[in-house]
User: What shape does this take?
Amino acid sequence: MKQVLAHFVLQARVLLRLPGYWVPAVIFPAMLFSFFGVSSAGDPQRSAFAMASFCIYAIAGVAFYQFGAGIAQERETPFDVWSRTLPGSRLPSLIAKIATASLFGLAAVGMVIAAAFAFSSQPSTLPNYCSWPACAPSRPYQPR
Amino acid sequence: METIINLSAISKKFANRSVLKGISFSVKRGESLALLGPNGAGKSTLLSILQGLRRANEGNADVFGHKTGSSAAMAKVGVTPQDADFPPQMTPRELLGFAGAHFSDPEHVGSLVTAFGLEKLVDRRTGGFSGGERRRVALALAFAGRPELVFLDEPTTGLDTGSQAMFNRYASMFIANGGTLILTSHNLHEVFEYVCDRIVMIDDGEIVADGPISAIRDAVGARQIRFRLDDSSQCPDERFQRDNGYWCGVISDVEPTLRRILHDNQSASNLTVENLPLDEAIALHRAADAH
Assistant: This one.
């Protein structure tokens, strides 16, 4: 547990101090949603679908960086090679990576939901947005 | 004394090139050993096998009686990377805390900071550090877990003389407290300044010399002496030869020879004493062995 926490703190610190990572990963989905997704706020089903789409984009962005490009880049660094000489398996590092990805993914999703709430002209739209995941399987989106 | 590292007929190939050819030696607790060899001799590959980062194609290697790289072995081992390249967003305090979290009884961060002269750097991000500052952080990281055995890959690369002395002091203390030290270097004369008591010399993947530092120093610690004499003067020592107006010789007993030259030849001038390059020292050693 101590090792998982150490890896989590290290990875979270590195990412938080790297605006090049968290600006596109956490802020861009909400920003793009406020440009293109808010226009559908009048229609509950469309607005819920738009928000859910941007939430998936937010999570996919974080996951792609953390588990795709991130791992590939890290494996080449001298620091990663050195950290493989520390006692313990690679599992704490992997668990910490999943935890940091979840943290940044939740932050990105939270920003999209906050944008949905903030930019909506109708106060009742947030429940509409949030109702989408529950009704989605039975009510597939039909573009007008 | 207890043997803590055992290497038996270790061979390693990259593609079709043999980098290590049947290396065997053992290390006892409390020894301080320098793996010495020119660039590409195979010393870093050997070190990475001992650290569990690479696997040997043939042979056996164990550390503290465990397979190299296993958690049981690495729990007692500290490592300094050859490239001191850390995440630039992290501070030395955070890195030392991270390394210490992997060990049951880590060293106090404050004492490492003092020992390696990191007081002014400890809360600054490593991104702006010079090569020497990074190297000091890397050295401190090796000792973060209070290890019993430390591997240092070219530990003093980029360090100024003050930092080298600081490292030597800490390493001496570590050995005096029963620690075992293994370091690599490609600089023969630098190794003589370290705290090592044994040298294993590797060339082209093979051990060419293994013995106490004093024996190796006598065998290959020769220096090149050059000086000028008046044209009429005859050099009294047959080990010197004429070269472009200078007298040149590769000499092991430097001090008595210099004293004799200066005593016998009042006109000696432009005197220089230079370290012998490692490849020449190895060639000299091989020639002596052949005789």
